[in-house]
Every structure is written in C-alpha cells, then in structure tokens.
Write a structure and sequence with these properties.
By secondary structure, the chain is of the alpha+beta class. It has helices spanning 14-30, 93-101, 110-115, 125-131, and strands at 34-43, 46-52, 58-63, 67-70, 78-84, 87-92, 117-120. It has a 5-stranded mixed beta sheet with strand order 1-2-3-5-6. A two-stranded antiparallel sheet has the order 4-7. The chain starts with 13 loop residues before the first helix and ends in a 5-residue tail after the last helix.
Length: 136
Amino acid sequence: MKKFEKISYRKLTARQQENYNFSKISALLADYGFNTLRLTDDWKGADFIANHVDGETFLKVQLKGRFTLDKKYVGKNIWVCFKYRGDWYLYPHDEVISALAAYSNFQNTESWTTHGKIHNGNPSRRDLELLKSYKL
C-alpha cells in the first residue's frame, strides 16, 4: 500500500456502506460510553447491540440509511439509527411512532397500510424537531 486514500462512500456497494456506517456509529457511540457488537443476522430486528458501560443499558439497534418507521419493529424495543446531513440520530422506534402520530397522518398512507413502513431521506422540519433530542 503506497498511501492511505479516503474512499468515496457513494462508490461503495450496499453491504460496504452498511459496514462503513456501522464503523462510524460505533466510534461515535464509544464517546457516549457504549460498546457495540455487530450481529450476523437481524436478531430480534437488530443489526447490532449497543451495551453501555453502566452495565444496565442495552440497546437493540437497527441501522438505516434514512429516517424509518416499520411495523415489523413495533413492540420489539428497537432503536433506529441513521445519518442525515452529517448528523447521526438514534431514536426509540415505538416512542417516535407515537409522537409522530400526534401531528402526522402517516398511519393512513398507502406506504404504511400496504407496505407497513415509511422512510424518508429528507425528513421534514417538524420530523427533525421531533428527532432533535435523539441527535448524537
């Protein structure tokens, strides 16, 4: 190897992007006292486990490329993590569904009723306000 060169995220395959994102969020979560463990399959809906140094906090995390809510995660105590405009967000899935339902009609959309999920690469200002307390 002659020298280190930064890679282009956009040129990575989907799997390589997931590995990249896991490495990035793991490094960030270390600053908050979490150790991460990558899972080989979606164990109980999680891509990885984040275990806090307090010995009591244990998060099952689903890593996404965008703001996502999905019926298959309901009731599983899943935290969703995604990056948006350089910021990482880590939020409790079911709590955000409840909060979003208070001001949004998403549960009556075709995406939710037919496909069981919504995802947005450009969250609205109101969504970002909701997610503000979950920004790392």
